[in-house]
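User: Can you recover a sequence for this backbone? Please restate the input before giving your answer.

Assistant: Of course. Working from this structure:
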């Protein structure tokens, strides 16, 4: 299953908190081929949709996602 480390994830309270871009992190949500990740207030994974491909792990530039 996919685990998100919310300490490392830059997306908090609906926007990127790492820099002053004010936008959404471009990474895991866009990379997931199963549309299993959503980005609303926080990034969340629908484990039922996830096919355990690991693409989101590589796509995350903050090493916030792991396949466990
Ligand atoms: S492991 Fe693959 S299917 Fe699962 S959330 Fe990550 S990118 Fe999506
Ligand atoms: S790619 Fe990584 S840092 Fe960006 S929203 Fe996804 S988990 Fe967070």
């Amino acid at each position: 299953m996919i685990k998100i480390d919310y300490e490392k994830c830059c997306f908090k309270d609906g926007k990127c908190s790492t820099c002053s871009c004010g936008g959404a992190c471009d990474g895991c949500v866009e990379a997931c081929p199963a549309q299993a990740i959503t980005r609303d207030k926080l990034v969340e994974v629908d484990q039922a949709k996830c096919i355990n491909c690991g693409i989101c792990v590589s796509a995350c530039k903050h090493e916030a996602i792991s396949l466990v």
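That completes the design. Residues 2-62 form a domain with the Alpha-Beta Plaits fold (CATH 3.30.70).
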